[in-house]
Amino acid sequence: MGLPNKEELEGKWDQAKGSVKETIGNATGNRDLEDEGQRDQAQGQVNEKVGEVRRKVGDAIEDVGKSIGR
Fold it and tell me: CB atoms < 10 A from the CB of 50, how many?
């Protein structure tokens, strides 16, 4: 398994940021901030999954290249 790529890390960051926004929005009664936090979390999950797929495809291509080179 390769190291997380930029998209995975940004996705995790967006999820954390969204969680904070949602919590603050909930605590202060700011529904707009709460909704924004939920959207950030959802987008972060999508970005993280896209990054995971790209990394796995890259790993598979690398494995095929190594097996051909034998």
Answer: 14
Alpha helices in the chain (DSSP H): 6-28, 31-68
Q: Alpha-carbon distance 13 to 62, whole Å?
A: 28
pLDDT in tens, 2-28: 788 999 999 999 999 999 999 999 999
Task: Please write the tens of the pLDDT for every residue from 32-58.
Answer: 999 999 999 999 999 999 999 999 998
Task: Give the distance from CA 35 to its chain's centroid.
Answer: 18
Closest CA to 3 of 68, 51, 45, 61: 51
- Sole residue written with tokens 């939920």: 38
State the amino acid at position 25 in one-letter form: G
